[in-house]
Task: inverse folding
């Protein structure tokens, strides 16, 4: 597209040009944002687009709550779930830079109210801030989710960490040997925010206001469990995706720094640009150049730096994070070289599909290199070939779920991982033998055994391995 067009024309092109997560060569598709909001049963979406290191445009589409005519505007507030984590990481890194904290000191030396249980695993590899922020500590509990505002009790931090009611999950512990790869843990980020409070003697939300939000002009962002009256005048309610509204509209997160941030696409774009300014070594940035470079570089074999996922290399290197809970889905990307990127916040669980279509539209309009997968050419599998894939696969790395199931139905291939939000998805095969579906830009490469059956599956996003699974007869 001709980027000489003005921002309003680029906004219209995005709104009219949503693109499937993976394009199929003989099925060229573009949708309007209104069509896809209806298709996915997602009431609303907020979008901010960055271009050449500045916010290019911000807008909202749809409504803040199903059954109302309250529009999503350019400054509507959303729960952003795990997009909270990069903000928490930046707060920690500021204190590392000031000499208050050290990334490689065991976290128990900083914690005052609770201690990570010692065991054989921690004796060999103590839990440090570096490992917690990069998800390489081996800590349990990916996340605790949100609590509806219907009288359901909200767990305290200690109840979450110890796995005591009303928490519904087990305690935060290290229960496997460190192997250099990531194991996503909201538990590590809850511990990081506790360290900030324990060491600085101030509430976590106040620290974020002073050290991140105010310097970056993020006036409609907060870690407080009950947002201010100003934010509540324009806040999106959460939706499970079945036509209903989450009890109480917006929801409460007990885990704060791991998943409790309220923000707008405009504000979050300012945060991303502030992080890029630090990475580029710009004067007055929220973080110094050296530690920002360290934060935005992959740690060991992890997909994460310190706070962000880091994807691509060179001019295609970008920082990324998504967020997912029972009422909201979000996705953020920023290319560190060009300063191009996007923030997409939705107010429904099916937004997990919508936000990729919106981000792909931004990528196409703004000509993001190495973002969209090339259009796939389909290979039609015979019934015999389809049967080679059918079976249960034990997930051995990348995800805390037991099985990936593959089956056929009416001559088509399907897959599912029970317990994640994607649900059952049709799988396609391209002419290179790579499997894909429409959940995201993921490619699955099969390994075949001597009998011709698939014995293993490796799922990648670009050059990052998302998960590995092995056939099981159990």
Result:
């Amino acid at each position: 597209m001709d980027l000489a067009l003005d921002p309003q024309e680029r906004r219209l092109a995005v709104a009219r040009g949503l693109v499937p997560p993976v394009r199929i060569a003989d099925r060229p598709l573009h949708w309007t944002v209104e069509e896809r909001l209806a298709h996915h049963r997602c009431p609303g979406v907020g979008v901010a687009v960055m271009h050449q290191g500045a916010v290019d445009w911000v807008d909202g589409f749809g409504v803040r709550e199903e059954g109302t005519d309250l529009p999503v505007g350019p400054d509507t507030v959303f729960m952003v779930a795990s997009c909270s984590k990069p903000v928490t990481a930046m707060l920690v890194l500021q204190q590392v830079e000031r000499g208050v904290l050290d990334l490689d000191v065991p976290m128990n030396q900083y914690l005052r109210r609770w201690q990570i249980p010692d065991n054989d695993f921690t004796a060999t590899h103590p839990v440090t801030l570096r490992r917690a922020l990069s998800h390489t500590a081996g800590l349990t509990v990916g996340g605790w989710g949100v609590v509806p505002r219907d009288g359901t009790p909200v767990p305290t931090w200690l109840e979450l960490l110890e796995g005591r009611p009303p928490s519904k999950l087990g305690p935060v512990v290290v229960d496997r040997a460190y192997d250099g790869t990531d194991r996503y843990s909201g538990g590590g980020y809850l511990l990081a925010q506790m360290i900030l409070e324990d060491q600085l003697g101030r509430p976590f939300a106040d620290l974020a206001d002073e050290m991140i939000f105010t310097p970056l002009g993020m006036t409609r962002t907060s870690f407080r469990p009950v947002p201010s009256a100003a934010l509540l005048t324009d806040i999106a309610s959460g939706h499970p995706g079945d036509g209903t509204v989450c009890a109480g509209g917006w929801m409460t997160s007990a885990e704060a720094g791991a998943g409790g941030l309220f923000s707008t696409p405009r504000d979050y774009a300012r945060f991303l640009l502030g992080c890029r300014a630090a990475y580029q070594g710009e004067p007055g940035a929220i973080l110094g150049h050296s530690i920002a470079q360290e934060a935005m570089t992959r740690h060991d074999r992890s997909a994460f730096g310190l706070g962000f996922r880091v994807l691509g290399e060179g001019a295609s290197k970008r920082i990324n994070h998504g967020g997912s809970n029972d009422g909201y889905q979000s996705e953020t990307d920023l290319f560190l070289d060009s300063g191009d990127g996007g923030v997409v916040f939705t107010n429904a669980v099916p937004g997990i599909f919508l936000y990729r279509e919106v981000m792909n539209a931004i990528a196409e309009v703004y000509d993001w290199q190495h973002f969209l997968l090339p259009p796939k050419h389909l290979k039609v599998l015979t019934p015999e070939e389809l049967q080679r894939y059918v079976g249960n696969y034990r997930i051995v790395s990348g995800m805390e779920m037991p099985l990936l199931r593959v089956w056929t139905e009416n001559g088509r291939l399907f897959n599912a991982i029970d317990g994640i939000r994607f649900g059952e998805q049709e799988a396609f095969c391209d002419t290179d033998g790579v499997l894909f579906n429409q959940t995201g830009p993921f490619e699955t490469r099969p390994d075949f055994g001597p009998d011709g059956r698939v014995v293993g599956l490796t799922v990648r996003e670009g050059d990052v391995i998302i998960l590995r699974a092995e056939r099981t007869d159990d």
Summary: The chain is about 25% helix and 20% strand. The mean pLDDT is 95.
